Amino acid sequence: MKRIKKGGQEYIIGYHTQEFRPEPLSEPIICKGKTAWLGIGYYFWTDLDFAHYWGIDFKRANTGYYEIYQAYIKVDNCINAVFDEEGYFFFRQKIEEAIQYFKDHNINVTLEKVNKFLTDNIWGKLGVEGIIYDDKPLNSARTDRIHSEIPDLYYKKRIQIVVFNKKNYINFDLLLEEQDGSEA
Amino acid sequence: MAQKLDYKKLSAKFTKELKKFDKVSLLKWMAIDELRENPIQSITPLKLLAENQAYSYSHDLDIYLPAA
User: Fold this and answer.
1) Chain A closest CA to B37's CA: distance in Å?
2) Does A128 lie at the interface with B, CB-CB under 8 angstroms?
3) Is residue A184 part of a domain?
4) CB A164 within 8 A of CB A124
5) Does A184 touch chain B (CB under 8 A)?
6) What is the ipTM of this complex?
7) A-B C-beta contacts closer than 8 Å
């Protein structure tokens, strides 16, 4: 994971994958709906490998090519559930509290639903502007990709950053254009 | 290192905010979320929203939302 300092502010470099288009994006595309599993927002990978995998698996259906953009992500007000002990336990506890809240109201929910609820109704009131999270690097779309030489120990974290607001990133720009996946 | 959130303070605030969010608010949010997922199919919650309160169209989210 790369960090950079600019004007006294520290940023994490994030990668945003989208389908190839003749005119490159000037802003990342907001993720909403069912795939917004950490809530509606702008999603970035911290590792180029996973940015490529995302492009190969999901972002080249129409043109055969994907592109990877780069941005500097301001994470000061993000819950860091990956590298911060307090952040991890806070996030875990609050997800559990939210699940219990839904159960108390006799409503069946998924984790994705809970996260969307929190993004829409709670995080903003707390000043939380994003989440750094990781999960197993498995992907149901592909079974032939080797994520670990010694499964089921997935020692390489699949980290994503979601930020809920455009003010949490700067310098969004095209990094790798017209990728066919052969480099990944 | 970047500065980080005060998780202890946030924890109490989180619980307070969750308590304040009653069942009516929850159901209203669920209707809005359903509209976001299925804007065309979700005519019923849209009608309900329209009947019960003013709403407006959010171009950013591409859904109808209760008026602020």
Assistant:
1) 5
2) yes
3) no
4) yes
5) no
6) 0.83
7) 67
Neighbours of A12 (CB within 10 A): 22
Contacts of B4 in chain A (CB under 8 A): 76, 80, 84, 86-87
CA distance to B13, B53, B54, B56, per residue, from B68 (Å): 23, 10, 9, 9
The parent domain of residue A146 ranges over: 3-179
> pLDDT at position A137, please?
72
**Binary contact (A121, B14; C-beta < 8 A):** no
Q: How many domains does chain A have?
A: 1
Tens of pLDDT along A112-157? 789 889 999 999 999 999 999 998 777 556 667 877 888 878 888 8
What local confidence, expressed as pLDDT, does residue A181 receive? 85
Q: Is A27 an 8 Å CB contact of chain B? A: no
pLDDT of res. A154? 81
- Helix-helix angle A85-104:B7-20, to 10 degrees: 10
| Domains of chain B by residue range | 20-52
Q: pTM score, two decimals?
A: 0.84
Torsion of CA A49, A64, A31, B35, to 10 degrees: -150
B9-36 pLDDT tens trace: 999 999 999 999 988 888 888 888 877 7
Cβ of residue A125 closer than 8 Å to a chain B Cβ: yes
**Minimum-distance CB partner of A75 among B2, B13, B62:** B2
